[in-house]
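Example record

One chain of 182 residues, shown exactly as stored in the release files.
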Amino acid sequence: QNVLVVVSVFLRVPRVGVWNLPVMTTWGEHGPIPDGLECMVMMDDITEEDGNYVEYKCEPSGTWKPALMGKDVVLQLQNTQFKKWTDRVKETDCQAELKRLLTAGPPIWLSDPNALALPEGDTHISTLWFQDENMEVSAMLTGAVTGEEREKLWDDFRKFQIEGAAEEEEAEAQAAAEEGSK
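Predicted structure tokens for this chain:
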């Protein structure tokens, strides 16, 4: 349903002639690509010619924003963010980090506070749009789960925190007792 619209603007100015402004491409509700856009990760230019421009839809406002990352970085993040969260929960030896991770819960949607910033009042990114394919796709993370499955996973990880916290508290109490007996 999206229609590619090419807009070419000509301005006639008296005694100066015709100015030909650059062609600005828009894709229905998407685009144009902001001038000077650069990937915050790879430092590459983001251009129509490179086919690396991505927009993301913020919810619940429905606002589309330009990603400050190129397509390859966005896809990499989408494909790895959930697994990285689960790996961090399983491998951390820091109870404070574990508490922060578990307070937030298993991630569902792609996120990055800098390159994919959300406007005030929005909670998540629901959709990605890739300029080179003129295609909208879900921003759900690869491997992420929702509903009852997410709650079960979250509960399983919370049990891990409780077990780990008890072991850490016991070790701290033992160290304090040894210090006090000296």
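Notes: The CA atoms of residues 53 and 131 lie 6 Å apart.
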